[in-house]
Amino acid sequence: MKLAVFDCDSTLIDGETIEFLAAACGIEAHVKRITDKAMNGEMDFFESLVERAAFLKGLSVEKVDEICADLPLMPGAKETVKGLQERGYKVVCFSGGFKNATVPLCKKLGLDCEFSNILHEKNGLLTGKVGGEMMFSDSKGQMLLRLQKLFNISKKNTLVAGDGANDLSMFEHADIRVAFCAKEILKKHANIVIEEKDLKLILANPLVL
């Protein structure tokens, strides 16, 4: 068995879920500035997540789900997931975003599993609080290690793909490391760098057997 782990925002989908949600609140530009700092490694991921989620307070869960059901897929996402599965990979999504997005994405792309965070709600409205599986800068790396141990998958047989600083922790535990339209901080640690918005280019790389 082989394992492929993809980031969600700006990797499997073309954009950042929290920015699409912030646009519905009229605060997209402000939230984007915080996101950019976190993805460039200029701000602690946990602090950035908590701060950004707080701005969504009062947004209806119905609106959140409506937006998340229509997030734009990255070109080549479906073909890449299917292609990797045909090569014997289990394909998983690790997201610092939210289950409102990753659960429907998992079904849409045929992913084997997803791990992400939960936006707390009360009486149908977001409270501005957030919790979950991917809250910290090292969360993805820690979860990757658990999956590798659970399924007895080696570092050699692990592929990871992402775009930002919070993906660094999983790069440490994979021999195939894809920086996809990524920040410079991630490119330095990658052995596959893709600058074009086409995930199918992963399948074309000779490292991906």
Keywords for this entry:
209 residues; Rossmann fold; 7-stranded mixed β-sheet; 7 strands
Q: Structurally, how many domains make up the residues?
A: 1
CATH topology: Rossmann fold
Report the uncertain regions: none
State the separation between the terminal residues, measured CA to CA. 12 Å
CATH H-level superfamily: HAD superfamily/HAD-like
> Mean pLDDT, as a whole number?
96
Strand tally is 7
Q: How much of the polypeptide forms β-strand, as a percent range?
A: 15-25%
- Just give the CATH class: Alpha Beta
Count up the helices. 10
Specify the biggest β-sheet.
7 strands, mixed
Radius of gyration: 16 Å
Decide which structural class fits the backbone: alpha/beta
Please give the share of residues in helix: 40-55%
Overall geometry comes to globular
- What are the secondary-structure elements, in order, as H or E? EHHHHHEHEEHEHEHEH
Descriptive overview:
The chain has 209 residues and is an alpha/beta fold. It is 41% helix and 22% strand. It has 10 helices and 7 strands. The protein has a 7-stranded mixed sheet with strand order 4-3-2-1-5-6-7, sandwiched between helices. The radius of gyration is 16 Å and the shape is globular. It starts with a strand and ends in a 5-residue tail after the last helix. 43% of the residues are buried.
Write a short abstract of this structure.
The protein has 209 residues and is α/β, with parallel strands linked by helices.
